[in-house]
Amino acid sequence: MDDLSWRERLGAITCVLALFGLIWLYTQEYPVFTNTLQANRLVIGALLFGALVAAGVVFALRRRLTPWANHVPEVLLIAFLVPLFMPLFASRLNRAGGTVKHRSFEFVAEVPYVASAYGWLRYRSVEVSGYRLIVKDKGRLHRFQYKSHPHFPLTQPGETVLLPIRRGVLGIEVMELK
Description:
3 helices; single chain; alpha+beta; 5 strands
């Protein structure tokens, strides 16, 4: 580590901070993924696009990365990190535009859930962390999650509810109820 210049050290520190920043953004994006109607389509498409981008980057840098045997860590880093973070960028791009429209769903249930990083502690009352809304649309069951309060406490199963749905730039729909 002593043979690195201050520029190389600064570059390494910047890369580590950028990686932690991207991981933090992923944790902030998780509630959006749970409320995305076609999340599997978004993630699989982004992973495939990320693999193509990674292949393009490796192809563009092919002269710099020769001989290949000396640059295996860099190639693996590109091939792993670009597809890994592409669903994050795709989700944020999808939410960058689009309009919110209310769409009707068949109500199934709204159930509270408890989430705890440490488990349940003895002698502590269990507090609700949020609510899961279960609805049907065209025979498909959708589960949405939000933390604020129950939005449909008096709604009976089978009734119709209107939910705000944003159709994003990429055509993927996200439920916008907070």
